[in-house]
Amino acid sequence: MPEQNSTSAVPSPSGLRNRHIAMIALGGTIGAGLFVGSSAAIAATGPAILLGFLLVGLLIIMIMRMLGEMVVADPGRGSFVEYIRAAHGDRIGFTSGWLYWFFWVVVLGSEAIAGALLLQDWINAPAWVLAVGLVVAMKIVNFFAPRIFGECEFWLSSIKVFTIVAFVVLGILYVLHVFGPGVPVAQNVLHHGGIFPHGVIALLSIIPTILFTMMGSEIATVAAAESSEPGKNVARVTRSLGVRITLFYVAAVGLILMILPWTAIVPGKSPFVAAMVAMGIPGAAFIMRIAVLSAVLSCLNSSMYITSRILTELADQGDAPAFLTRASVNEAPRMAITVSSVAGMLVAFSSILAPQTIFAFLLSCSGGLILLIYCLIATSYIVVRNAARRIGTEKADFSLPFFPLCNYITIGGVVLVFLAMLANPSERMTALASLGTAVVCYGLATIFSRKSVTA
Hints:
- The chain contains 20 helices and no strands.
- The chain is mainly α and 455 residues long.
- Helix 5 (90-119) packs antiparallel against helix 14, helix 6 crosses helix 14 (284-316) and helix 15 packs across helix 16 (358-367).
- The radius of gyration is 22 Å and the shape is globular.
- The two termini are 21 Å apart.
């Protein structure tokens, strides 16, 4: 491993603080996908969406636990990509790194356009101008020391978390008839086609969409490497993050389904606004617009951060151009940030110039990649823990129960979701495109590895 990776554990005044890590961990997974995108998932599955959130939450709990134990057992490697590389070799490391970077670049461009469309309510300017402005603004934020990124993410995430907590509290009071005219909970949940109005296959095939709204928890483990206590921060984050995320999502969406029948939820429009209007909350649309804008900016900020760090690590390993490396972890990787921001803007432009062709293709190619990445984390944990067992350190470093059954269940769940996507005509192209992208990336890894051997 390169020498600079080991310096991530050195305390630095420019590094991230414990409160930054905690809020990045919690707020990083609460995005516009929950505030707005969850409407499409609710419309596609009905009340069964709660089971979907529970299943995805369980997956995240398992993945974060596995990742946390690998990092604590062998700290200082860098992002989770380096643990995949250590377990499966350079070709899989190359593949997982570039797939993850590509996934977040598509997110970056998508969020830039989403933010631009939101800002058009206040600023009379073309969407592409506003999108470029947002990307440049986040690029400037990330150009400073990591602590500046952490401070911005802390406050942006605080707005999201406060909004969810306030909504849950008000929703509980409304359902309990503390205020308002009351609501027929059982009728709203059960009398509109039952729990599974569209069947189990519809639920399984929507899992990637649900995961897309809940993903991002692994960013905290990368950010922890730039804090003064990386080992302790990773352990703290991975122990409880998955449970907290699941409770947030299940509580919020569950209350929406109690307040309104799922058939009243309109895809593309915020179900939170609909529920708040039903409760009689004044200024619901404006409140949610602020929350969604903070979510978009937070996601942009995190996307810029994680893409630059992954790109830097790939450069450290010789899997990306050498000019993308950085001299010190205390400094921002400005070249990597610049490359990622340009790539994100190209994605944003494609959504304006060719939304039904190029942009739709990029979304399909990236749609299932996070499932493949999580599957690789699960298999890497098996390899790493078996290696620890051989040298006698397993009991000291690892505590995930029912090993390796949990890992195989996780992997089997990913396979089952892909099969469900292939069986669903509306999700089939996403599954095929994501698997094809992974195959192409692995092919490139094979070609480059052969060139490096013959050089």
